[in-house]
Inverse folding.
């Protein structure tokens, strides 16, 4: 059983999330909840949950500040940010969150997140290795598990990552690799990689032009961009 806590300043969203998780018949058990970050941090230290759902926009202390209050040892849990504001997703990625969920939370997105938590928990992974980065000194190299074995790929060589059923197709400058993991597993592995569509992640350094429906890449390829992702992409590009 995976123990989790919810930190959100609003009571209704906390209770709705707990109710929804209970209705999914998954091996999760709520062990605590808090309406502010500091009390939530104390719960984490005391209860040592494997999973934390954390709201970002809260009074007094923004949820993005959680790393300031926890040591690396105390951060041995899966962190899922929940927010009503898409502009926070980039910051969540930079904080190495396991996932982020936009309010109102979509049940299918929540299920997908929980199933991945269960899978990684079974593998005894934690928040410090779940980004699948080769090591802390070289976070521009991704570790990709494929049917041909484990391969190391430089982020700068990635053009796009494309959904291929339950697999992912890495379209690189000189080759293609089929990963045994679904596309969402790579959604937050590097700040240069952006989920622009349900079927695509794009390396923002390969973008040449944006229009209303498509992204034109420097190799003249066009890939779709969803309406909901445009603002996030524009913001990310403005930070470069």
């Amino acid at each position: 059983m995976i123990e989790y806590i919810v930190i959100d300043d609003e009571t209704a969203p906390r209770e709705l999330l707990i109710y929804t998780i209970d209705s999914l018949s998954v091996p999760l058990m709520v062990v605590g909840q808090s309406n502010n970050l500091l009390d939530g941090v104390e719960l984490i230290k005391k209860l040592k949950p494997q999973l934390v759902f954390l709201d970002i926009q809260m009074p007094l202390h923004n949820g993005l500040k959680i790393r300031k209050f926890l040591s690396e040892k105390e951060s041995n849990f899966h962190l899922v940010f929940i927010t009503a504001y898409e502009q926070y997703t980039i910051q969540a990625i930079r904080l190495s969150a396991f996932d982020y969920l936009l309010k109102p939370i979509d049940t299918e997105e929540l299920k997908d997140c929980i199933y991945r938590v269960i899978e990684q928990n079974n593998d005894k992974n934690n928040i410090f290795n779940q980004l699948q980065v080769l090591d802390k000194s070289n976070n521009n190299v991704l570790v990709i598990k494929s049917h041909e074995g484990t391969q190391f790929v430089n982020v700068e060589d990635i053009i796009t990552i494309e959904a291929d059923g339950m697999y992912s197709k890495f379209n690189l400058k000189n080759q293609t690799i089929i990963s045994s993991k679904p596309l969402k597993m790579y959604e937050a592995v590097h700040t240069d990689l952006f989920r622009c569509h349900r079927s695509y992640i794009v390396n923002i350094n390969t973008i040449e032009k944006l229009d209303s429906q498509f992204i034109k890449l420097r190799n003249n390829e066009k890939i779709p961009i969803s309406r909901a992702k445009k603002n996030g992409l524009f913001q990310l590009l403005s930070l470069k």
Summary: The chain has a mean pLDDT of 85. Residues 40 and 171 are 41 Å apart (CA to CA).
